[in-house]
Amino acid sequence: MRIDIVTIFPEFFSVLDVSLLGKARTSGLIDLGVHDLRDFTHDRHRTVDDTPYGGGAGMVMKPEPWGEALDSIIDPAEHAPTVIFPSPAGRVFTQAMARELAEHPHLVFGCGRYEGIDQRVVDYAATKAEVRLVSLGDYVLNGGEVATMAMIEAIGRLIPGVVGNPESLVEESHEGGLLEYPSYTKPAVWREREVPPVLLSGNHAAIARWRHEQQIERTRSVRPELLPPPALD
Ligand code: ADE
Predict the structure, then answer these.
(1) % helix / strand / coil in the chain, to the nearest 5?
(2) Same domain flag for 175 and 100
(3) Measured from the CB, is residue 86 less than 6 Å from ligand 1?
(4) What is the pLDDT of residues 56-76, one digit of tens each?
(5) Which of 114, 144, 164 is the last residue of a domain?
(6) Within the chain, how many helices (H) and strands (E) appear?
(7) Is the CB of 144 under 6 A from ligand 1?
């Protein structure tokens, strides 16, 4: 998968060199390009923002550098990429969305700062690519960088080959609609706390049943809205 990021903080993404995603880059599973929006400005101060038309607080990102950045990334000869603008005004990012985006060959993340990007950039991008506004959740970040990082991690680990053991993707929270069951490792007793005996029983059916019950109980307790509505009788 090809991933391009446009940002005024390219150094933010240096952490993508480490861990599983770093390995995925080295092995060629993920081809990452980080682009400094200021490289597409032409004034001495490398200006990327200006005051909003109509007034109001804060600054808006100017369209010109964004247009040039997107033109440099989107190759009209290639299949149109999917351009994601992280925004609290977007659709909320979910595991299902991560799964779907993991199948796209080319993602472009446009990280806005300040009060956002001039809307014409989004409208222009939509003539060249599939465009989505995506929110990490119902809270406000200072910009799109942290949201982009979270989405790339969630999407990247679903690309075949990135996570060594694909089975570890199957049983986790949000795959299958329930939260993950609690996990334990050795020692069997730690600070007088015992591992639930069923996990030491060797009875695989009983273990599977216990884990499923734990998933339901956890989900009921912290995320009841994820459970199917009770059947009417
Ligand atoms: N930018 C600022 N807040 C955001 C959020 N909640 N999700 C995505 N991008 C954002």
Answers:
(1) 40, 20, 45
(2) no
(3) yes
(4) 999 999 999 999 999 999 999
(5) 164
(6) 7, 9
(7) yes
pTM: 0.94
CA angle (91 as vertex; 2, 88 as ends), nearest 5: 95
Residue 49 lies in a domain: yes
Distance from the alpha carbon of residue 119 to the mean position of ligand 1, in angstroms = 16
- Ligand 1 atom with the smallest distance to the CA of 138 is 6
Residue 119 is encoded by which pair of tokens? 């809307």
Query: In angstroms, what is the span from residue 118 Cα to ligand 1's centroid?
Result: 16
Residues 6+ apart with CB under 8 A from 71: none
Q: Whose CA is nearest to atom 4 of ligand 1?
A: 88
Single out the residue of 60, 116, 129 nearest to residue 87, CA to CA: 116
Cα of 137 vs centre of ligand 1, distance in Å, is 7
**Confidence check on the interface: ipTM exceeds 0.95, yes or no:** yes
Domain boundary among 126, 145, 164: 164
